[in-house]
Amino acid sequence: MDKTLRTIRSEIEKNKEGIIPNVTLIIDTNILADHAWSRDSNITYLIEEIVSEHPDFLIVVPQICKIEFKLFFSKSLPEQYEIAYYISKDPEYGLLFDDALIFSFAKLVGASLESDSNVLFLTKDRDFEVGKVMKELNEVGVEVYFSSDKCVQRIINLLV
What we know:
With 160 residues, the protein is an alpha/beta fold. The protein has a single domain (2-159), classed as Rossmann fold, CATH 3.40.50. Helix content is 53%, strand content 11%. The protein is built from seven helices and four strands. It has a four-stranded parallel sheet. The longest helix has 17 residues, at 97-113. 38% of the residues are buried. The model has no long low-confidence stretch (mean pLDDT 86).
């Protein structure tokens, strides 16, 4: 697990020229679709405005999303797949494998950045709104948002 956490931290530092961003936002496939199809002005604002105006803000996208994106996290994390496999088999989580991959990625990012970055996870997929999932993300410092408006407000508050 330590190697995976170091890999995540290293990839994020590489992307931000050696600096851990103050705010790290993990986004799900549905958020990318909202941006691509201009379905949510808050998402457009996050991706096109806040990212360019705040160098201490980073958006990361799990590799599973399979959509080309400027801050796409492309490093393969074998441990993420192993964790996701077992999570997808555990009925307490209630997550299919793809969602379990995103959940495990968010959890690993939270653990790797510890208290060095405010880690947020934005999704519109209510499958993540499960007690065990929310508890475990909270334990590694990941704030979960199902509303782009609330997420944008939180990011603005963190960046000022």
